[in-house]
User: What shape does this take?
Amino acid sequence: MSDDRSTGDDRSTDRAMYDEWQDRERMEQLLDETEYDTELGMELAEDAQRVVAGELSEAEFEERHHDAVVEEFGQDDRELSIPDEFEDDDSGFRETVQRLADGEEVDRREVMKAGGVAAMALSGSLGGTKLGSRDESAAQAGGGEGEEDTQYGMVINLNNCDGCLACMVACKQENNTSRGSSWMYVMAFEEDAQDDESFLVRPCQHCDEAACEKVCPVGARHTREDDGIVLTDYEICIGCRYCQVACPYGVNYFQWGEPDTPESELDPEHVYDERGKRVDSRPVKGTMGKCTFCPTRQDGKQGEDKVGTTACEDACAMDAIHFGDMNNPESAPNQHLEEYRSEQSNDREDWENRKEHTVSTFRLLEDKGTDPNVVYVGNEPGEHAHQVEGPVTYEDVGLVDNRKEEVLDKGKAANDGGGETA
Amino acid sequence: MSTDAGREALVRPFQRTTKRYYGLLALVLLAIGVFAAGYTQQLQHGLIVTGLGDWGSGGGVPWGLYIGAFIWWVGIAHGGIILSAAVRLIGLDTYQPVARIAELLTIAALSVAGLYIIVHVGRPDRIVTSIIPAWPTRVHWSPLVWDVTVITLYFVLTATYLSLTIRYDVHRLRDRMPDIFDPVYDLMLIGYTEKEDEIVERMVWWVALAIIILAPLLLHGGVIPWLFALLPSMAGWAGGVQGPSFLMIALTSAISGVIIAAAIFRRVYGWQELIGDEVFRGLAKWLGFFGLLFLWLQLQQVVTGIFAAPVSLTHATEAKLAKPLYQALIAMVVAAEAYIFASALKPKLFTIPRLVGASLLVLAATLTEKVLFVVEGLQHAHFSLYDGVAGTYVPSLIELSSLLGTTAIVVLYFMIFAKLIPVVELHAVEDEHDADGEEVSA
Assistant: This one.
C-alpha cells in the first residue's frame, strides 16, 4: 500500500515494497477464507492493477478472465458495469470497482471478494484502504462504503505549543478520568546538547498497525470501522494489561481501583458510541483506558457542531492541535499543514534545489512499525532527550502527574476519590 | 530390594497418617487462607491494592510479581514433564523413581500458573464470557491467546499421560490402597484389562514424544518467551535469545523442584531404597548442566546488551546489571553450581540435604530472575522520555501472599497425591527387581 495521505512524510521505497507485500499476504489470506479460487482472485487483482496502470487494455482484461470468472461464479458480474466505465480515466475504473463492491446482490459481493477487493487493496489508491487494520468482518463484506475511508488523526504543531496544559485539563474534564490518568499528556523535554526546552504533546497515536490491538486476547481493543479510531470496549476488556505492555508510546492508563467519577455522574450520551459499544468516557474498574479521540463527538451525540473536534483541540488556544480526517486534503490537520508549510517557504529562487518549505514533520517511533495517525510538526525528541519541568506544572492546573506515588501507593484508600484523608 | 519389599515401601503412605501430616495440612491450609484473604481484598477494591501502576507518565509497571510467578510456575511445570517424558522416551531408567513426582509437580504447578492468570486480570468475572467468544478471531493474533491455547493442550496431554500410566499401578496395588477412595479408583480403572498394558505403553510413548516436542519448542521455548520477545515496546525483552533463556530457567527450576519433592518423600516415608542416592547424584549433574546454560545465556544477553548496543538496550542492560537483586540471583546460581561441581569432583561433599539447599537457592534465583525480567523490562522502554517519572515497584503484601498461597497449594497437591496414588511408579520397583543385582545404596 502506498502512502498517499496528503500529510504523509516521505516513506522509503523499501517500506512501500514491504507494505505492498503485506497487503498481498492479507489479500491471499482473505481470499483463502472464501469458497472461491484464491489464485483467480489474485490474478484478477493484478491484471486490474495493470489496467489501472495502462499496461493492459480493457479488452485484453476481458478476454483473459471472462471464461474463468463464469466458470468460478456462474456469471460474470463485471460485465454489467465495467465496459461502460473503461473509457474513463484511471479513477473511473477504480470507481467502478468500488461500485461493484457496493452491489446489493450477494453474488456480486462475492465476485468482489474473489477479485475486486484485492484490486482495490493492491492498487492502494482508493483512499488508502486499510483492510488489515479494520474489522475483518467489514473487509470481507466488500471493503468500504464506496467513499474514501475516514481516518481520524491529528497534526500537532509542537512549534505552537507553549506547554499551558489546557488540553490535559480539558481531556480530564471531558472524560472524567481518574487522578493521574493522563490520556492527553504534554511533556517538556531537553536534549543533552541544547538548553532550550521543547514540548511533546502525546495523545494516543491511533495507529494503523496498533500493537495494543494485535495483542488483545479478547478483541476489546479494536479499530472503529467508520473512522479508524482505536478504542477499548469496556464491557469486554478482561484487564490483562497486555495492550499497555505492548504499546511503545505508554498511552494506556488502567483503572486500578474505583473510578473517581461514579457511574451515576456519567452522561449516557457520552458513554456509548453509535454502535452501542461502551467505549467513551473513563473506563470501568479493572479495565483499560486511553485517549479515545472523543468518539461520541464524532458520532454527533454531543451536537453537530462537535463532530470533527476533540476536547483537547477545542481547549488549545495556541492552534497546536488539529484533529480531522487524515485522508481528506480539506480537513483541519491537512489544511493546517499546508498553510504552515506555505508560511515557512524556502528561498527557491536563489537555491532551486531546496525543498518548498522548511517545515519538518515526524511520527513518533516510526521505526516500530505501528503506523501512527498523529503527525508532529517540530522537534522530534532524540534518544538522549529527557523530561524537564515545563512552564506550567501539573500541580498548577490541578493535575496529578506521578500516579503511582501520588494515588496508587495509597492502596484501597485511594478509592475514596482523592480525599486528602487517604 | 525385592519387588515385595518395594511394594511394601510404595504403599507406606496409605497405611499411616501421622500427626505431622495433619500439622502440615493445617499450616498449608492456613497459608492458602492468607492468600484467599488477600485476594478477596483485591476482588473488593481492585488491583489498586497491588504495587502495580501504569508505565509511561504513570511511573509504574503494569505487570509484576503475578506475571513473574506465573512464568516461574509454568517453567517448573514444563521442565517437570520434559524430565518425565525423557525418562520414558529415551529410557533414562535411573530416573524412573522420580518420573511420577515430576508429572505430579507438572500438574500442580500448571494449576497454580492457571490460577495466576485469574489473579492477575482486572476482570476475572469476564474470563469465560470474553475469551471464549473471541477465541476464533483472536487466536491468530494475540500471543496471550496462543499461550492459553497451548497451555490448555499441554494440560490435557499431561493429564492423559498420567491417567494412562496410573492404571497399571492402581490395578495391581488396589487391595493395599485406602478403601475410602474406591469411587476414585473405579473411575481411574474404567474398562481396565491387563491386555491393555502393552498398548498403553505404546500410546504413552507417543504422548511422551508429543510432550518432548511441544514443551521445549513450542511452550517454554516458544509462546511464553514470545509474550515478551515479540513486542515493539520494551528494549530488554526483544530478541531470539529469550526462547533458549526461558527454557533453561524452566529446566533448572523444575529439576530443583523434583529434587526437593523427591528428597522430602524419601525422608518422610523412609524410601532410601526406593529413591536411591544415585537418582539424586544424577539429578545434581543435570541441575549443574542446565544451571551453567542458564548463566551462559545471561552472559549472552549482557554482552550483546552493553557492547555497542542501541541506546535503549544499553540503558536497560546497564540498569539490570546495577540492580543488587540481579547480582544476588546470579551469585546464588553460581554458588549452587560451585557446590554441584565440587561434589562431583569430591563425592564426599555430596549429601542430599546440601543438594536440597542448592536447589532452594536455584529456585529463589529463578523466581527473582523472572520477576526482575518482567519489571525491569517495563521500567526501561524504548521510548525513554518518561524516565523522569519512573517509580519503583515493590510487590504489596497481597501480591507476596500469592507466593505463599500457591506454594501451599502445590504442597497440598502432593499431600493429597501421596494418600491417593503411588507417588513412585510400580514399574520402578519391578524394574529394579528384574534387573536384580543392581546395587541400590541406602
